[in-house]
Write a structure and sequence with these properties.
single chain, about 240 residues, alpha/beta, Rossmann fold, seven-stranded mixed beta sheet, binds S-adenosylmethionine
Length: about 240
Protein backbone atom coordinates (compact mmCIF):
# COMPACT_ATOMS: atom_id res chain seq x y z
CA UNK A 1 0.00 0.00 0.00
CA UNK A 2 1.51 3.42 -0.93
CA UNK A 3 2.47 5.65 2.01
CA UNK A 4 0.54 8.95 2.12
CA UNK A 5 2.69 12.06 2.20
CA UNK A 6 0.68 14.23 4.60
CA UNK A 7 2.70 17.29 3.54
CA UNK A 8 1.95 16.88 -0.16
CA UNK A 9 0.27 20.14 -1.22
CA UNK A 10 -2.53 18.34 -3.10
CA UNK A 11 -3.20 16.09 -0.10
CA UNK A 12 -3.47 19.16 2.18
CA UNK A 13 -5.67 21.01 -0.32
CA UNK A 14 -8.13 18.11 -0.58
CA UNK A 15 -8.14 17.66 3.21
CA UNK A 16 -9.30 21.27 3.62
CA UNK A 17 -11.66 21.02 0.65
CA UNK A 18 -13.36 18.16 2.55
CA UNK A 19 -13.39 20.02 5.88
CA UNK A 20 -14.52 23.35 4.42
CA UNK A 21 -18.23 22.82 5.08
CA UNK A 22 -17.63 22.15 8.78
CA UNK A 23 -14.30 23.86 9.61
CA UNK A 24 -15.86 27.11 10.89
CA UNK A 25 -18.29 25.40 13.31
CA UNK A 26 -15.74 22.78 14.37
CA UNK A 27 -13.12 25.42 15.02
CA UNK A 28 -15.54 27.37 17.20
CA UNK A 29 -16.84 24.32 19.10
CA UNK A 30 -13.49 22.68 19.75
CA UNK A 31 -11.38 25.68 20.72
CA UNK A 32 -13.57 27.24 23.45
CA UNK A 33 -12.88 30.64 21.89
CA UNK A 34 -9.09 30.27 22.14
CA UNK A 35 -8.52 30.38 18.36
CA UNK A 36 -10.36 33.70 18.17
CA UNK A 37 -8.26 35.09 21.03
CA UNK A 38 -5.08 33.93 19.30
CA UNK A 39 -6.08 35.45 15.95
CA UNK A 40 -6.65 38.78 17.73
CA UNK A 41 -3.27 38.44 19.44
CA UNK A 42 -1.64 37.76 16.07
CA UNK A 43 -3.22 40.91 14.61
CA UNK A 44 -2.30 42.99 17.68
CA UNK A 45 1.40 42.33 16.95
CA UNK A 46 1.18 44.62 13.92
CA UNK A 47 1.30 48.42 13.88
CA UNK A 48 -1.73 49.25 11.69
CA UNK A 49 -1.53 53.03 11.86
CA UNK A 50 -0.58 53.74 8.22
CA UNK A 51 -3.11 54.27 5.40
CA UNK A 52 -3.35 52.03 2.30
CA UNK A 53 -1.63 49.04 3.93
CA UNK A 54 -1.28 46.04 1.63
CA UNK A 55 -1.81 43.00 3.90
CA UNK A 56 -1.38 39.40 2.75
CA UNK A 57 -3.09 36.70 4.85
CA UNK A 58 -1.21 33.47 4.11
CA UNK A 59 -3.12 30.17 4.44
CA UNK A 60 -6.21 32.34 4.85
CA UNK A 61 -8.84 29.55 5.00
CA UNK A 62 -12.26 31.19 5.10
CA UNK A 63 -10.71 34.54 6.02
CA UNK A 64 -11.20 33.92 9.73
CA UNK A 65 -8.60 36.52 10.74
CA UNK A 66 -10.03 39.28 8.52
CA UNK A 67 -12.60 40.44 11.12
CA UNK A 68 -9.75 41.22 13.52
CA UNK A 69 -7.63 42.87 10.80
CA UNK A 70 -10.60 45.03 9.73
CA UNK A 71 -11.25 46.02 13.35
CA UNK A 72 -7.61 46.97 13.94
CA UNK A 73 -6.76 48.71 10.67
CA UNK A 74 -7.94 51.75 8.67
CA UNK A 75 -10.64 51.21 6.06
CA UNK A 76 -8.07 51.83 3.31
CA UNK A 77 -6.26 48.56 4.23
CA UNK A 78 -6.22 46.02 1.41
CA UNK A 79 -6.41 42.36 2.55
CA UNK A 80 -5.44 39.60 0.12
CA UNK A 81 -6.03 36.02 1.28
CA UNK A 82 -3.86 33.24 -0.16
CA UNK A 83 -5.08 29.66 0.15
CA UNK A 84 -4.54 26.45 -1.78
CA UNK A 85 -8.03 25.05 -1.10
CA UNK A 86 -10.64 26.16 -3.62
CA UNK A 87 -13.46 25.19 -1.26
CA UNK A 88 -12.07 27.24 1.65
CA UNK A 89 -11.66 30.15 -0.78
CA UNK A 90 -15.24 29.77 -1.99
CA UNK A 91 -16.36 30.24 1.62
CA UNK A 92 -14.06 33.23 2.09
CA UNK A 93 -16.07 34.84 -0.73
CA UNK A 94 -18.94 35.24 1.76
CA UNK A 95 -16.80 37.65 3.76
CA UNK A 96 -16.03 39.64 0.63
CA UNK A 97 -19.74 39.88 -0.16
CA UNK A 98 -20.58 40.80 3.45
CA UNK A 99 -18.02 43.64 3.55
CA UNK A 100 -18.49 45.64 0.33
CA UNK A 101 -16.93 48.72 1.95
CA UNK A 102 -13.59 46.92 2.51
CA UNK A 103 -10.87 45.97 0.02
CA UNK A 104 -10.83 42.17 0.31
CA UNK A 105 -9.73 39.59 -2.24
CA UNK A 106 -8.55 35.98 -2.46
CA UNK A 107 -5.92 34.23 -4.52
CA UNK A 108 -6.02 30.46 -4.97
CA UNK A 109 -2.32 29.66 -4.77
CA UNK A 110 0.36 27.63 -3.06
CA UNK A 111 2.00 29.96 -0.53
CA UNK A 112 5.31 28.14 -1.10
CA UNK A 113 5.34 28.88 -4.80
CA UNK A 114 3.15 31.85 -5.69
CA UNK A 115 3.25 34.61 -8.30
CA UNK A 116 3.07 37.33 -5.63
CA UNK A 117 5.62 39.96 -6.75
CA UNK A 118 8.70 40.77 -4.66
CA UNK A 119 8.38 43.45 -1.98
CA UNK A 120 4.66 44.18 -2.36
CA UNK A 121 3.44 43.42 1.17
CA UNK A 122 3.41 46.00 3.95
CA UNK A 123 2.09 43.32 6.29
CA UNK A 124 1.85 39.51 6.33
CA UNK A 125 -0.43 37.80 8.85
CA UNK A 126 -1.20 34.11 9.22
CA UNK A 127 -3.23 32.10 11.73
CA UNK A 128 -3.04 28.32 12.13
CA UNK A 129 -1.53 27.71 8.71
CA UNK A 130 1.96 26.55 9.72
CA UNK A 131 1.32 23.04 11.05
CA UNK A 132 0.55 21.48 7.67
CA UNK A 133 4.09 22.26 6.48
CA UNK A 134 7.08 19.96 6.88
CA UNK A 135 10.36 21.37 8.15
CA UNK A 136 11.83 21.93 4.65
CA UNK A 137 8.55 23.58 3.58
CA UNK A 138 8.71 25.94 6.59
CA UNK A 139 12.14 27.02 5.41
CA UNK A 140 10.77 27.77 1.94
CA UNK A 141 7.84 29.66 3.49
CA UNK A 142 10.22 31.82 5.55
CA UNK A 143 12.13 32.71 2.36
CA UNK A 144 8.84 33.58 0.66
CA UNK A 145 7.86 35.87 3.56
CA UNK A 146 11.21 37.66 3.20
CA UNK A 147 10.73 37.93 -0.57
CA UNK A 148 7.15 39.24 -0.50
CA UNK A 149 7.61 41.80 2.30
CA UNK A 150 8.82 45.28 1.41
CA UNK A 151 11.77 46.60 3.47
CA UNK A 152 10.26 47.77 6.77
CA UNK A 153 7.24 45.48 6.25
CA UNK A 154 5.86 43.61 9.28
CA UNK A 155 4.75 40.00 9.82
CA UNK A 156 2.86 38.01 12.47
CA UNK A 157 2.18 34.25 12.59
CA UNK A 158 0.39 32.12 15.18
CA UNK A 159 -0.08 28.33 15.43
CA UNK A 160 -1.41 25.78 17.94
CA UNK A 161 1.60 24.16 19.58
CA UNK A 162 2.81 21.53 22.03
CA UNK A 163 3.25 23.30 25.39
CA UNK A 164 6.47 22.59 27.37
CA UNK A 165 4.60 21.68 30.59
CA UNK A 166 4.16 17.84 30.49
CA UNK A 167 0.72 17.88 32.18
CA UNK A 168 -0.66 20.54 29.89
CA UNK A 169 0.96 18.83 26.90
CA UNK A 170 -0.65 15.47 27.73
CA UNK A 171 -4.05 17.12 28.19
CA UNK A 172 -3.82 19.11 24.95
CA UNK A 173 -2.57 16.14 22.94
CA UNK A 174 -5.31 13.88 24.34
CA UNK A 175 -7.82 16.55 23.41
CA UNK A 176 -6.48 16.99 19.86
CA UNK A 177 -6.01 13.27 19.23
CA UNK A 178 -9.26 11.93 20.70
CA UNK A 179 -11.80 14.61 21.64
CA UNK A 180 -11.57 16.78 18.49
CA UNK A 181 -12.03 13.73 16.16
CA UNK A 182 -14.97 12.62 18.35
CA UNK A 183 -16.58 16.05 18.03
CA UNK A 184 -15.74 15.89 14.31
CA UNK A 185 -17.54 12.56 14.10
CA UNK A 186 -20.66 13.49 16.10
CA UNK A 187 -21.25 16.88 14.54
CA UNK A 188 -19.72 16.49 11.10
CA UNK A 189 -19.48 12.68 10.57
CA UNK A 190 -15.82 13.20 9.74
CA UNK A 191 -13.46 11.97 12.45
CA UNK A 192 -10.62 11.12 10.03
CA UNK A 193 -10.02 14.64 8.69
CA UNK A 194 -10.22 16.20 12.15
CA UNK A 195 -7.83 13.58 13.56
CA UNK A 196 -5.25 14.94 11.10
CA UNK A 197 -5.21 18.31 12.90
CA UNK A 198 -3.82 16.51 15.97
CA UNK A 199 -1.28 14.60 13.84
CA UNK A 200 -0.01 17.84 12.30
CA UNK A 201 0.16 19.63 15.67
CA UNK A 202 2.19 16.83 17.28
CA UNK A 203 4.63 16.91 14.41
CA UNK A 204 4.83 20.74 14.30
CA UNK A 205 5.84 21.06 17.97
CA UNK A 206 6.27 24.82 18.28
CA UNK A 207 7.36 27.83 16.23
CA UNK A 208 11.03 27.90 17.29
CA UNK A 209 12.17 26.22 14.07
CA UNK A 210 10.13 28.60 11.92
CA UNK A 211 11.62 31.58 13.83
CA UNK A 212 15.11 30.29 13.02
CA UNK A 213 14.22 30.07 9.31
CA UNK A 214 12.77 33.60 9.35
CA UNK A 215 16.00 34.91 10.91
CA UNK A 216 18.09 32.97 8.37
CA UNK A 217 16.01 34.65 5.66
CA UNK A 218 17.15 38.04 7.03
CA UNK A 219 14.04 39.00 9.01
CA UNK A 220 14.14 40.53 12.49
CA UNK A 221 12.11 37.96 14.41
CA UNK A 222 10.68 37.55 17.93
CA UNK A 223 9.29 34.24 19.20
CA UNK A 224 5.71 34.55 20.47
CA UNK A 225 4.07 32.26 23.05
CA UNK A 226 0.56 32.37 24.54
CA UNK A 227 -1.27 30.39 27.22
CA UNK A 228 1.78 28.47 28.48
CA UNK A 229 2.94 27.65 24.96
CA UNK A 230 -0.37 26.20 23.67
CA UNK A 231 -0.04 28.70 20.83
CA UNK A 232 3.29 29.93 19.53
CA UNK A 233 4.32 32.05 16.60
CA UNK A 234 6.61 34.68 15.22
CA UNK A 235 6.44 38.41 14.75
CA UNK A 236 8.87 40.92 13.34
CA UNK A 237 9.85 42.95 10.32
CA UNK A 238 12.09 43.04 7.29
CA UNK A 239 14.98 45.43 8.00
CA UNK A 240 15.27 48.51 5.82
CA UNK A 241 18.48 48.31 3.80
C1 LIG B 1 -6.07 25.30 9.70
S1 LIG B 1 -6.54 26.25 8.28
C2 LIG B 1 -6.37 27.89 8.89
C3 LIG B 1 -7.37 28.82 8.27
C4 LIG B 1 -7.44 30.22 8.86
N1 LIG B 1 -6.22 30.97 8.61
C5 LIG B 1 -7.78 30.24 10.33
O1 LIG B 1 -7.36 31.17 11.04
O2 LIG B 1 -8.54 29.37 10.79
C6 LIG B 1 -5.10 26.07 7.28
C7 LIG B 1 -5.30 26.58 5.85
O3 LIG B 1 -4.03 26.56 5.18
C8 LIG B 1 -4.27 26.23 3.82
N2 LIG B 1 -3.01 25.76 3.23
C9 LIG B 1 -2.32 24.66 3.57
N3 LIG B 1 -1.21 24.54 2.80
C10 LIG B 1 -1.19 25.63 1.99
C11 LIG B 1 -0.31 26.09 0.98
N4 LIG B 1 0.80 25.40 0.63
N5 LIG B 1 -0.57 27.25 0.37
C12 LIG B 1 -1.70 27.96 0.68
N6 LIG B 1 -2.59 27.56 1.61
C13 LIG B 1 -2.34 26.41 2.26
C14 LIG B 1 -5.37 25.19 3.90
O4 LIG B 1 -6.06 25.04 2.66
C15 LIG B 1 -6.26 25.76 5.00
O5 LIG B 1 -7.30 26.55 4.50
Amino acid sequence: MPVTDIYDEQYVASLFDRMSSTYGVANYLTSFGFTERWRKRCVAMINWRAENICCYDLMSGMGEIWVSVMAASPQSTKIIGIDISTEMNARAMDQIIDNPDRKLSILTANALDSDIPDGVADVIVSSFGLKTFSDPQLKILAAEVARILRPGGQFSFIEISKPPNPVLRTLLMFYLKYIVPLIGYFFMKDATSYRMLGVYTVSYGNSEGFCTYLREAGLTTTYVSDFFGCATGARGHKPKV
